[in-house]
## 1
Amino acid sequence: MAIDYGYEPGVPGALFSNFYDSDSAVMVEDPSSEGGFAVFGKQGEEASGYKAKPSTGGIFMGIAIRNAVGLVKHKGDAVAVCRKGKIWVAVSGDAKKGQPAYVADDGTISATGTTAIGKFATNATKSNGIAVVELA
């Protein structure tokens, strides 16, 4: 029996499989997104979520899981964060299956960057802009 998450696969923030580890955060800023964006925390702040890495004490938490009803997340909203597992993300540029996945300080996910987060489980091109990332 399949689980119905309330959204189609292949959209940023959709879980790729039922095997994942998650946490939650309260957004400190308005991410203006339905899911699939990088969530950063800040050392010394419990459960605070940022869409871009804070200039001091910023750490990558995971990828925001898409809300089943597709509501846009706002400042102060709680968001589920995929820390380990496979999840669809928006990708900047091309990426090949098996290539390392990185997140930049601005939250952009690509095949190059500053913080390694896992590897691409599918290909991405500039024309489609999405791929599955397997978070380590």
Note: The two ends are 27 Å apart (CA to CA).
## 2
Amino acid sequence: MRLENFYILIGETIEYCQRIEYDLKMIYAYMEDGSFSDNLKKVEVLPLGEIIYLIREREKEQRLFKKADYDILFTITKRRNHIVHQCFKNYNYALTQEEQERKFEIEYKNLEAFHGRLTTLWKAIENVRYNFLSKKL
């Protein structure tokens, strides 16, 4: 049951990360000159970290996020990358059953904490997108 819950948490966490990423891409597409849909097509292929950098550089005249917000966004990128590329390896390839269980518990607790932060954070970023777009339209 605990492993099943772990998989559910991973799925929801990745969904929240994708929502954040796409909201940021939409914000950037509206920040750029030209057609929103053309701009969105250009940035859809960019990774999350690059979008965060682009918004930070572009928004100097419009303050959407504080420095602390950017720190959180870059942390999301690192944590998401860890989940996608590392967390299963950390416990599945442990040398002993005891080490595997210990590493699984570490990953589970870290995932739980990150998931908890994202449950409100993705909504806050969505609200930034709504507020930004309502001013642009």
Note: The mean pLDDT is 91.
## 3
Amino acid sequence: MFFEDKAIEIRKTGKFSRQDIIDAETLHFMGGSKKDGTPYHPEFFDLKQQFINAMPVEAKRLAQKKFNKDKKTHTGTNFANLSNYIQNVFSDMEIRGAMFPQLMTGAEDRENMKTRRIFTVEQKAILKQMDKIVKGNK
């Protein structure tokens, strides 16, 4: 399925609830923008930009390492340069993991995301604001 030039990945739910997967995948859309640059969800988009700008050096190094590996096997604008990769892939992966840690397949990754210990204080505050938008007052 496509929304403009964005593809939605369809996968089997396996051990994950369908609702968790739908909620998590919706984050791509909420943090994205239309072809003309207009954000789909301006408040969430702005928070995502703040989250990216607050990335520590270690996260930027990890993004570079993953980008170098992924660009060998992936194509499209998300993999055209590191900036696009961080904007559309890496940051979404981190935000989705932090908001839905139960979807992480590795135990260590799940714990890191659940506790949010890998994020800066500033990123944790941004994630709390994102939680309110996506999950309400849960």
Note: The beta strands are 2-3, 6-7.
## 4
Amino acid sequence: MNEKEKDILEKVIKLSKERAYIIDSLDSQNGEPIGGGIYSLDKIELRSEEQDANQKLWDYLLSLSDEELLMVGTMMLVGRDGDRGGNMERMEMYRTNERIFRGIMSERDGAINYLTGKKPLGEYLEEGMRRMSWSTI
């Protein structure tokens, strides 16, 4: 992993965790749990603080190149799903998840919506980075 990729992942992690914190804070104040760590922009009414945080994350992901977005999505899947129950080497695990996310990326806005729909996106990315042990991708 090069420094630019590391910086991109760290920025997405930061934005995602800020958004999750806002959601959790508002939920605890209002007693409105979303549940399951996942929310859909289509199914909930976003509060203004959530909208702002989500927009920052969306805008940042939108600013990435296709290859950078593919890397973020792949690392999210590596963190969430790992080797999919197999016993894969790191690079095989990365490439398998990369093929899966490449299919999701057939529509760029759909891929960004997929990523922003994951409340624990930052945690998934951190776990993906841990599983890849900062290896060169």
Note: The chain is about 70% helix and 0% strand.
